[in-house]
Amino acid sequence: MKAFTALTAMLILAGLSGCAVTAHVPGNSPDSVDCPDGQCVALGQSAKFGGISVIPREVIEDSRCPAEVQCVWAGRVVVSVELVERGAAAGAGNSILQIDNIEAKAIKGGTLRLTAITPPSPAPGKSINPKDYRFFFRLDP
């Protein structure tokens, strides 16, 4: 599990270098999740990559291995995201896709990756409130 935590930290740092994120999410309650340097987006917030905005809309699946449990497969998080192209008429340039933290998606402008998710997996039997999720995206040319 320590190796998984170290890998997650590396993915977060990698995600920060490739993305101009416009949202700052301060922790204003004990239940909220602070992101390193505020560089991540919550559901409904926008990560901008040149002329494309990526807006996570819904967590479809979170099958990550619970904290302090050894699993054969680490699991995945699947997120529904809205892609908005700059200059498109309202709604005309929008598309919805599902992306997970395992496979990248080819989109106009490059390859979109979900590089990290916070918070980490919850303890067994616990769940994560959707408002507490934060997502790190990267767009590779």
What does this 3D model show about the protein?
The chain is mainly β and 141 residues long. The chain is 11% helix and 35% strand. It has one domain (2-140). It is elongated, with a radius of gyration of 15 Å.
Radius of gyration: 15 Å
C-alpha end-to-end distance: 32 Å
Overall number of domains: 1
Largest sheet: 5 strands, antiparallel
- Report the helical percentage: 10-25%
Give the percentage of residues in beta strands: 35-45%
Residue stretches low in confidence (pLDDT < 50, at least 5 long) are: 1-33
The arrangement of helices and strands along the chain is: HEEEEEEEE
How would you state the average pLDDT, rounded?
75
Question: How many helices?
Answer: 1
What is the approximate shape?
elongated
Give the gist of this structure.
With 141 residues, the chain is mainly β.
Which helices and strands occur, and which strands form pairs?
Blueprint: H1 2-17, E1 20-21, E2 47-49, E3 52-62, E4 77-85, E5 95-100, E6 105-107, E7 110-118, E8 134-140
Antiparallel strand pairs: 1-2, 2-3, 3-4, 4-5, 6-7, 7-8
